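Researcher: I'm preparing a figure for a lab meeting and need a structural model of a single chain. I don't have an experimental structure, so a prediction will have to do for now. The sequence is pasted below. Please return the structure as C-alpha cells so I can convert it later.
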Amino acid sequence: MSDRPETIAAARAALRAGDVTAAELTAACLDAIAAAAPLNAFVHVTAEIARERAQAADALLRQGDAPAMCGVPVGIKDLFCTEGAPGQAGSRILEGFVPPYESTVTGKLRDAGAVMLGKLNMDEFAMGSSNETSVYGPAVSPWRAAGSTAPLTPGGSSGGSAAAVAAGLCPAALGTDTGGSIRQPAAFTGIVGLKPTYGRVSRWGIVAFASSLDQAGPMTRTVRDAAILLGAIAGPDPKDSTSADRPVPDFEAALSGDIRGKVIGIPREYRMDGMPDAIDALWQRGAEMLRDAGARTVDISLPHTRYALPAYYIIAPAEASSNLARYDGVRYGFRAPLAPGDGITEMYEKTRAAGFGAEVRRRVMIGTYVLSAGFYDAYYRRAQRVRTLIKRDFETAFADGVDAILTPSTPSSAFEIGALDSADPVEMYLNDIFTVTVNLAGLPGISVPAGLDGRGLPLGLQLIGRPWEEAELLDIGFALERAACFVSRPQRWW
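Model: Understood. Here is the structure written out cell by cell.
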C-alpha cells in the first residue's frame, strides 16, 4: 500500500470511511518494518498479535462509533510490559523475559482497538541520549546529513520510537521521558514528542528507571496526533499511586491555534555560552512566529536552571540504584554461568556484572554512592533541595502570568553514532541540558519540529506548560507547528 495514511488522524479518517481496513494498514506497516531493518528501530516484531488485533479492530469499526485509536498501528518502546511479547528494556539482564501482564498504558491502547506492531529499540533501562547503550545495538536515524552517508543517532532513550515514526514505519509510538527521552529524539528526527505532567499517565507496568521522574508520552508526526494519543493513554490508575485522579480533557478538541493574548516566557538562563548559531536563530524565529500568531513574549528568569543537570544526575542515578536492585538472576531474566562452589553472592555479582551494560553500572554505582552513609546529606538531600528551587522558579513564572515557556529542545542537531567520547559521559549528559528541568519540576513539555540546520538536519523547539494544562500547551504547540510549517522528511536510503 504505497499511499497508506501516515498520521493517526489520516488513518482514523481512512479507516472510518472504509478506504482501508485495519488489516491492510497493519500489513503495510509490517512490510515497511521488514524493509527498514538497517534502522534497527523494531527489535521484536509482534506480527501475529498485530494481525489478530487488526481483525478485531475491523470488526469494531464495522459496528460504528469506534474509539479514535481503533485500527491504528503503533510501536511500543521496549520499556513497556506487554503480555505475551518480549520485554527487555534494552538490557541483557532481562533476556528471555516475556511479561505475563500488560502495562496500564498499552492496555488502554489495546482496549481502544490500537494495533501493536512490536517493541522498539531504546537505551538500556532508558539510560542514554543516543540509543547506543542498547543490548540490541544502536537504532539509526532515517535522516542523513547533506553530502554524508555517516549514520546518525535518532536520540535517546526513545531512539527506536523516534526512528520508526520519522521513517513512516508506524503512525505513532510510545516513548518514556525521564530527563528528555521523548523530546530530544523527537527534535533529532523531526517529529513531535510530548512529555505529560507527572501523574497524568500511569507508570504501572513500565520498567522503572527513576520513579519520581519517569513519564510515558506520545511520539507522533503532528501535534494533533499527539493530542489524540495522549487522550487514549491518560487518566488515573488505581494500580499507580502516583497517577493523578484528574479528569482527562478532550485534547484534540482544544486545538484551535488561536493563541492571541497568550504570554510566552523566554528564559534568559537558557542562552548558554557556545550555543550554536542555528539553535539561537531558530529560537528567535520561534518567538517571532508566536508573536505573529498573536502571543506576547516576555523575558523571564529561571535562576536555578544552572544547577538542574548536576541535580538530575544525582537524583536519577540514586533512584535507579534502588529500582535496579531487583535484577539479580534469581526470579527472571538472565543468569550468569556459575563456577563450582559459587554461592548466591557470586551469582548476584556475576549476573549483574554481565547483565548490565557499562552506562547502567556507572549510574547504579553513582546512585549507591550518593545514598550511602556520609554522602546522603552532601549530595542527595542537597540535590532534592535544588529540585524544589527549580520547581519554585517555574511556579513564580506562571504566577506572573506566563502561559508557556519557549526554549530550544536540544543544544545541537543529531550527531553521528560513536561521535561522543564514551570515556567522558558528561559530554553525552549535556544533551539533556534544556529538558531535565521539566522532569525535575513535573511539568508538561512538548518538542515541535521547527526547521533544519545547515546540514539539512531537523531542529526542534520546546514549549513548557503549566501543570495539568496539556490542552493549552498542545494548542500553543499547534499554533507553532502551523507557523513553522515543517514538512521535511528524510530521504530514504535504507
